[in-house]
Specification:
alpha/beta; 5-stranded parallel beta sheet; two-stranded antiparallel sheet; 7 helices; elongated
């Protein structure tokens, strides 16, 4: 399944250029919008994996669009493009969650490399979430692997880095019946 990219810029020539650069070289679905408010409505209706936005636009700037996108879908990658680059705007964009900050004029290789990195990042995020959910579904293993029956977490014994010991509050009995059970059932 190819990823979806939403490109927002008030200059229609820049939209056409970016669409052509990405569509000709990669198999991503590219959606363009020249009005940031309509782009946000479109994003609400159909979320995408990556948003590329210009910094200076009438009606809503790229930082406001970045904040709105992150508020709706925090895991969406946002790349900010600008011809008016300053250190302050770059720092502000990255602090607010921008994946990258690209200055105009740019080279095609830079755009494609950044888009590929962002889409690979999105794929890793999806995989990570799927693996976490699969692990959480195995309740028995997850609770047994991280805690003792008394509810305290496992800890390393100081005298041997290869062995795990119960917390000090977990009493271990040395009776014959206790020795016949595994350590995690003795608490």
């Amino acid at each position: 399944m190819p990823g979806r990219i939403l490109i927002v810029d008030d200059e229609k020539d820049m939209l056409a250029l970016l669409r052509r650069m990405i569509s000709e070289e990669r198999d991503y679905e590219v959606i363009t919008e020249n009005d940031p408010k309509r782009a946000l409505e479109r994003f609400r209706a159909q979320p995408v994996e990556l948003v590329m936005t210009d910094l200076k636009m009438p009606g809503m700037d790229g930082i406001a669009l970045l904040e709105a996108v992150k508020k709706l879908q925090p895991k969406t990658a946002v790349i900010v493009l600008t011809a008016f680059a300053t250190i302050e705007t770059a720092v502000e964009a990255t602090q607010k969650g921008a994946f990258d900050y690209i200055t105009k004029p740019f080279r095609q290789e830079r755009i494609l490399l950044t888009v590929d990195k962002a889409m690979q990042w999105q794929e890793m995020v999806r995989e990570n979430l799927a693996l976490r959910q699969a692990l959480e579904e195995k309740e028995g293993f997850a609770s047994c692997a991280r805690t003792w029956p008394c509810g305290r977490p496992w800890r390393r014994r100081r005298d041997s880095p290869r062995w795990w010991a119960p917390p000090r509050s977990c009493a271990i009995s040395s009776s014959a019946s206790a020795r016949s059970r595994p350590p995690w059932e003795r608490c």
